[in-house]
Design goal:
- The complex is a heterodimer.
- Chain A folds into three domains: about 150 residues, Glutamyl-tRNA reductase, N-terminal domain (Beta Polymerase, domain 2, 2-Layer Sandwich); about 140 residues, Rossmann fold (3-Layer(aba) Sandwich), CATH 3.40.50; about 100 residues.
- Helix content of chain A is about 55%, strand content about 10%.
- Chain A has 17 helices and ten strands.
- In chain A, the strands form two sheets. Chain A has a six-stranded parallel sheet with strand order 7-6-5-8-9-10.
- In chain A, strand 2 and strand 3 form a beta hairpin.
- Chain A is elongated.
- By secondary structure, chain B is mainly α.
- Chain B folds into two domains: about 130 residues; about 150 residues.
- Helices cover about 80% and strands about 0% of the residues of chain B.
- Classes of the chains: A alpha/beta, B mainly alpha.
- Chains A and B meet through helix 7, helix 8 and helix 13 of A and helix 5 and helix 7 of B.
């Protein structure tokens, strides 16, 4: 098979190395163009995310491991030593790796969904730059399809596996649709902003923000389109919110049981308090208040662990599915390598048929021309399909391209250029 | 026509419900929403057919379908499935569908076994038009209150999962707490309104139709007690006198009471008619 891959991910390299190896869209385009100029490459595709940088090549001849590492060093910002642990995969193993990546099985966060979109983006970028070939096209389209179907057929991507996404999941379990819900954000640091980002994505658009430094609260409130309230939050503000998110660096609880009890008297309905701070910002007794749910970072760790365990169980099923898909791809490839011969065979025989029909046209009555056309086409179809099925069988079952070469020679007519192309391709295939 | 209405169509519907039950029970990935969507649509079509059949048969018979035990069961099944169809417009939920679906299929089988024709009932035992409206309304109220109990049970299960941080299958698969709460409150309010109308109509019968006094008085006292309980629950819910979990538990309690009363009524019926 004419496919090989070299790459770095979270298992081979530190975040610093991965950061340097990652490519901007412009750099990626330029590298694609540069690489495809190489005499040995028919196609090239680069998958570059914050967690992995992978080059997929479709070469005429496989490149040596040293050559691939050299290429990686040349086109990324890493040193030869840093390229040493890079994985190099060829043929079916490269396909299997790509399918695993697409399904999220090779991700740091097992079953993550963003990678599928990133694989799609990488493919479209290469497609736009015309640097793919038939093998890369097929491999990536199958990888995208596999990534989708594995997520549908297994539960590999089910359940939240980070504290921020688990917070949103919990809020959704309590409130259902989050659009229209009111959120009080206590704190304006990185954790608070990250939680706000996730909640905004989930549909929250009514915000109140408070922070010890009012200016910082104002910055976050402006970003979210919310208002700033006093710190620590007043009882009225606590009562206003359906969801309270706390993430301050305070050493003492910012929200006390007494405050929350008063707030509960001023409001009806369920309330969720997400305490994402360490040490915690809320009094643990708040948990016992009526219609109140309090969740801390520790609680979310349990949820994340439970979900990860469930995903690991699903990973085994996903691996089985991937094995099947790789076998299908290999079968397609084996069939496809005799495609040029088949095309040549069809074109030549069709040319001969048309010439013969034209030459003998006068021997038939005009009213029979249509019948002659139909008869000759039918005869050719039968001959061609018999030959195609034997060519494919020889290629697939016996891994024999000798018959393909003989057929190519037999039907080459006077087009030596075409014949040489076809024979060169078949020789390349045999040399793998 | 009679055979078509009393046997053929209910049998076709029974096949439809059984098929739907099998499809809802078939294992599928939780994200197979497309299939769920088709099943919900099929359920809605069945609800429309059921509703049309029920109304058509009532017109054909000239009275609501509460004249025989079989008809009572089929009316109960019809109300229940219409309720499920409404619920599905609010929350698409597998677990909230399978149980009522099984109950509806069971009710249909029982109704068919008992027979839907009124010819087997003595004319003096046939209920009059006014009483049939009262019975139908009471049945609708019972259905709604049972529904409120079911949503209440869902709330309690989800609440326990969230509080105990167990995050089991129910945690992922149940509708949200707010959805369950809203559905419970809607069915409780609607059920309370119907029970109230039913009690008022019973009192009206007592006042305006002295000849029906004996039959009405026989079940007026338990009905008034039940109305008192339901009204207290509705008021507690309306004015947030209790925590949501306690209200949900109370709804489950009322449902259990309704089921108990239904069982007692059925036993009473069979004792009276077959002893």
């Amino acid at each position: 098979m004419r496919l090989e891959a070299i790459g770095l991910n979270h298992t081979t390299s530190s975040i610093d190395v991965r950061d340097r190896a990652a490519m901007t869209p412009d750099k990626l385009k330029a590298t694609l163009h540069e690489l495809v100029q190489s005499d040995n490459l028919e196609g090239v595709l680069i998958l570059s995310t914050c967690n992995r940088t992978e080059f997929y090549f479709s070469p005429y001849q496989h490149t040596s491991a040293a050559g691939l590492r050299e290429m990686l060093v040349e086109h990324t910002g890493i040193t030869p030593e840093e390229a040493e642990p890079a994985y190099i995969l060829r043929d079916a193993k490269a396909v299997q790796h790509l399918f695993r990546v697409s399904a999220g099985l090779d991700s740091q966060l097992l079953g993550e969904v963003q990678i599928l979109a990133q694989v799609k983006d990488a493919y479209h970028a290469a497609l736009d730059e015309h640097t793919t070939n038939v093998v890369l096209n097929k491999a990536f389209l199958r990888a995208i399809e596999t990534g989708k179907s594995i997520r549908q057929e297994t539960e590999i991507s089910r359940g939240a596996v980070s504290v921020a996404s688990a917070s949103v999941k919990m809020a959704e379990r309590i409130f259902g649709e989050l659009a229209g819900r009111r959120v009080l954000l206590v704190g304006a640091g990185q954790t608070a902003r990250l939680a706000a980002k996730y909640l905004t994505t989930a549909g929250i658009d009514r915000w109140a923000v408070c922070n010890r430094t009012r200016e910082n609260a104002q910055v976050v409130a402006d970003l979210l389109g919310g208002r700033v309230v006093d710190f620590p939050p007043a009882v009225e503000d606590l009562a206003w919110a359906d969801l309270i998110v706390t993430a301050t660096s305070a050493s003492e609880p910012v929200i006390t049981h007494a405050q929350m009890k008063l707030a509960k008297k001023k409001r009806k309905g369920l309330q969720l308090l997400l305490d994402l701070a360490v040490p915690r910002d809320s009094d643990p007794e708040i948990r016992d208040l009526r219609d109140m749910y309090l969740y801390t970072v520790d609680d979310f760790q349990d949820l994340v662990k439970a979900n990860l365990k469930a995903r690991e169980a699903e990973a085994e099923r996903a691996e089985e599915l991937i094995k099947e898909r790789v076998a299908e791809f290999t079968e397609w490839y084996q069939e496809n390598r005799v495609a040029p011969t088949i095309q040549q065979l069809q074109e030549t025989l069709e040319e001969l048929r048309m010439l013969e029909v034209k030459r003998n046209a006068k021997k038939f009555h005009k009213t029979d021309h249509e019948q002659v056309e139909l008869f000759s086409k039918s005869l050719m179809r039968k001959v061609v399909s018999l030959m195609i099925s034997n060519l494919k069988r020889a290629s697939l079952e016996e891994d024999d391209l000798g018959m393909a070469k003989a057929v190519a020679r037999a039907v080459s007519l006077n087009r030596n250029g075409d014949l040489n192309d076809v024979l060169k391709r078949l020789d390349d295939e045999l040399s793998h | 026509m009679q055979v078509f209405l009393t046997t053929v169509l209910p049998l076709i519907m029974l096949v439809g419900f059984s098929l739907l039950l099998g499809l809802w029970n078939a294992p599928c990935h939780p994200e197979g929403r497309k299939r769920d969507h088709h099943l919900i649509r099929a359920g809605n079509i069945l609800a429309i057919i059921f509703g049309i059949w029920w109304a058509g048969y009532a017109v054909f018979q000239g009275a609501l379908l509460v004249a025989t035990p079989g008809q009572l069961l089929v009316t109960f099944a019809c109300f229940m499935w219409l309720g499920v169809a409404y619920t599905q417009t609010r929350v698409s939920q597998r677990k909230l569908t399978i149980i009522p679906l099984a109950v509806v299929a069971l009710l249909l089988i029982s109704a068919l076994a008992l027979g839907l024709e009124t010819t087997s009932v003595k004319p003096e035992n046939l209920v009059n038009a006014r009483a049939s409206v009262h019975i139908a309304m009471s049945l609708a109220a019972v259905t709604l209150l049972l529904g409120s109990g079911m949503f209440g049970a869902g709330e309690i299960i989800l609440h326990k999962q969230i509080k105990s941080r167990t995050f089991g299958q129910w945690f992922h698969d149940m509708p949200s707490m707010s959805d369950l709460n809203r559905l419970r409150r809607v069915s409780l309010t609607a059920g309370w309104v119907l029970v109230t109308i039913s009690v008022v109509s019973a009192l009206g019968t007592l006042w305006f139709l002295p000849e029906s006094r004996e039959a009405t008085i026989s079940h007026l006292h338990p009905m008034l007690v039940l109305w008192g309980i339901i009204t207290s629950l509705w008021l507690a819910d309306r004015f947030h006198w209790l925590a949501q979990q306690k209200l949900a538990a109370a709804s489950v309690g009322v449902s259990a009471l309704m089921i108990l009363l239904l069982i007692v009524s059925v036993i009473g019926f069979f004792t009276r008619h077959y002893a």
